Amino acid sequence: MPRSKRRLNSDMGPEEDDRHYKRSRNTVSSDRRFSKTEDNSSFSQKRCLAWFREYTTPDEPELLGPDGMEKFCEDIGVEPENVVMLVLAWKMNARQMGFFTMQEWLRGLTEIQCDTIHKIQNKLDYLRSLLNDPTSFKSIYRYAYDFARQDKDQRSMDMETAKAMLQLLLGKHWSLFSQFGIFLDDSKYKVINKDQWYNILEFSRTISTDLNNYDVDGAWPVMLDEFVDWLKTSKTSEPSRS
After folding, report:
1. InterPro entries annotated for this entry (predicted)?
2. Which segments of the chain have a pLDDT < 70?
């Protein structure tokens, strides 16, 4: 939640008001645990853990939950739905969306050597750049399947979650994404399994927009065969332009 701002007393005179303002600034500065000087220091596991506990509760000191996640995202200046948060979760190998355990937090932030807000803000561009590396992107994409499933006992992902994750990962990069989304809406499919999930990425990377290199006898999941048939039918039924 957004932090409330302290309001100055309107009855104060200019000099008293100025002194109050300076005292307030000094108090804020002295209360900040992670100063710019510390940001230039080497990584400290102790400082990293102290930072983690700013987002936990006394009842669950080793688990950063949804409220803590909201505050963490606010502190680093990133929306929770931003894809960079998925990359960070991948670095931590976090198991459940919306939660970081203390072990996951330490694992990921030790790897990228971040123990303060300022340090992780300086790493955001690096984390985003991993999406441009094909090998890293493939690993992040595959990780997202298990990460995003709400029920870990189920072997498939519900369609609503799957479409949201596909939008996040492929929406800006796959030219057929919007058509695939319409196909899913019109299809019988209510869930996506792991084989389908993995092959959607492969399809988006290798099959041309005109489908000329799609092998109908290839080992694609039936879902993608049906998508190709649906796409061809849709193109055929489009009114011709004079």
Report:
1. DCN-prot (IPR014764), DCN1-like_PONY (IPR042460), PONY_dom (IPR005176)
2. 1-40, 237-242
